[in-house]
Amino acid sequence: MEILKGILLAALVLGALGLVLGALLAAASKAFAVRRDEREEKIAALLPGANCGGCGFAGCAAFASAVVRGEASPTRCVAGGRRYAPQIAEVLGTAPAEPPEPRVAVIQCSGGTHILRRFDYVGIQSCFAASRIAGGPTECAFACLGFGDCAKACAFGGIRFENRVAVVHHENCVGCGKCEAACPRKLIVLAPARNDVRYVGCSSRDRGGVVRTLCNAGCIGCGLCMKKCPSGAIRVSDNLARIDSALCTGCGACIDVCPRRIIHFVNPPAASAD
């Protein structure tokens, strides 16, 4: 009987202690609660929810919070672009800001099956891992390795592989920059998503004679595109032609004259951004 009384007493004490601690925790949660602006939830609900990080924040919720605090422009959501900015401004009660010019990724390599390979890589199927094995399996040290780190990083399905080289499908690309950060050879850049801009699909800085022996789709630095460009948008340096998108008028003269056929539209007319 004494044992039973002891057990009941212990249960009562523990129960009372639990009630006291629970009350204290409830009071503390109210006293120290972080007041969240309801506009954050409204803005977060407008966003695509991809958490791509293209805005520079950890995810859509963090971006929404920064917008409400005035630490980020409503136009920084690259996935939403021009579509979400007016709606966010309406929630904030401000005038809509002009969104920045849309950008899309371009792959500065046209090699793939055109490039000679030094060895067959059978390790972890990752560009980063392959690049650490004797400099990578491609003879060209500037070529796309083709193991898909960029495609895996893209939350929108904007990159696929064709003939062992990454290809951007601009109807899905939002210009978040995740692929750019994922490429160990830094072959991906963001360019204005206008259909009047061109880019050179190569990153090799080897001399033309070397490029000819390694790849059938590499820039040889011949300078024909630079001489033909009427707006002075093209320069050849380090044996590689580069196009200044701010000067490019989209005349197409460079595409016609390139002997290697590696100058392309940034955004083909059929997939032009609004």
Structural features, described:
By secondary structure, the chain is of the alpha+beta class. The strands form four sheets. A two-stranded antiparallel ribbon has the order 1-4. It has ten helices and eight strands. The relative contact order is 0.11. The protein is elongated, with a radius of gyration of 28 Å. α2 packs across α3 and α2 runs antiparallel to α4. The mean pLDDT is 87.
Question: From the helix content, strand content and strand pairing, which structural class follows?
Answer: alpha+beta
Q: Main β-sheet: number of strands, strand sense, barrel status?
A: 2 strands, antiparallel
Number of DSSP strand runs: 8
What fraction, in percent, of the residue positions are helical?
25-40%
Average pLDDT number: 87
Rounded to an integer in angstroms, the radius of gyration calculated over CA atoms is 28 Å
The tally of helices reads 10
Low-confidence stretches: none
Order of helices and strands: HHHHEHHEEHEEHHEEHE
Report the end-to-end length measured between terminal Cα atoms: 84 Å
Overall shape: it is elongated
Work out the strand percent: 5-15%
Main β-sheet, spatial strand arrangement: 1-4
List the helices and strands and how they pair.
Layout: H1 2-31, H2 38-46, H3 60-68, H4 85-92, E1 103-107, H5 127-131, H6 149-153, E2 159-162, E3 165-168, H7 178-182, E4 188-192, E5 198-200, H8 208-214, H9 224-228, E6 234-237, E7 240-243, H10 253-257, E8 263-265
Antiparallel strand pairs: 1-4, 2-3, 5-8, 6-7
